[in-house]
Amino acid sequence: MLTKIIAHRGSKGIRPENTLPAFEKAIEEGADGIETDVHMSKDKHLIIMHDETVDRTTNGTGRIFDKTLAELKRLDAGGYFGYDYLGTQIPTLDEVVQLLIKKHFTGLFNLELKTDKIQYPGIEESVSAYMNQQTLPFKIIYSSFHPQSLIKMHALNPTVEFASLFKLQTKFARKFYRNQLVKDWHPDIRWVRAHRFFLPHVQLRPWTVNSTEDMRYCFKRHFDGIITDYPGRAGIIRQAIQG
Ligand code: G3P
Ligand code: MG
């Protein structure tokens, strides 16, 4: 089976991350999956962004959790990347999901709950309620760096797939291995390369696999997936290795 190519925050390498243009580009580039990050606004809307604050990727400052949807929508989330994207808004989860439906996306939708730094009260219930009321043509994988979030999501969605995220600093993945709720691992690629630890029944999808060398490493070992900022380039390299 081909290693799945999952666009990290959309096609983050060539579009402003976690915006509708980035997700559209990932679909155009033929990504098998899309990874994105969800937070919650002050007025409880589900907001797509990577950081807990808007400082790095918009023209505003402050925490998402301290702003209303209307305040967040007034910010520019494209200008940091280049003039061509000036005026791009921060999307909501609903806007991203509706775009994927409109574009007939049928791959993996990896929604990362950004609950490791701020434990947005009720975010698990809110994401589950929203996703479960949609008729989705794609498969959902929920992931988080925060194990309690995954446990809550599993209780709310017992049939959905879950992935445990872990960082380079994670000493060993034994605690994830023992957790029967989580059969998918989404580790830092540097962790994978340092530990050379693979289990055949674990679906391994490292991030962020951007260099040609890392891509070749993952494709040669037929990992289940890679999470990359450059899905288009990854497709060319996969073609050369896996056919
Ligand atoms: O889900 C994989 C990856 O996105 C995790 O790290 O910080 O890019 O959200 P981060
Ligand atoms: Mg992420």
TrEMBL record:
It comes from the Bacteria. InterPro entries: GP_PDE_dom, PLC-like_Pdiesterase_TIM-brl. One of its GO terms (biological process) is lipid metabolic process. Residues 3-238 form the GP-PDE domain. Pfam families: GDPD. One of its GO terms (molecular function) is phosphoric diester hydrolase activity. This is Glycerophosphoryl diester phosphodiesterase.
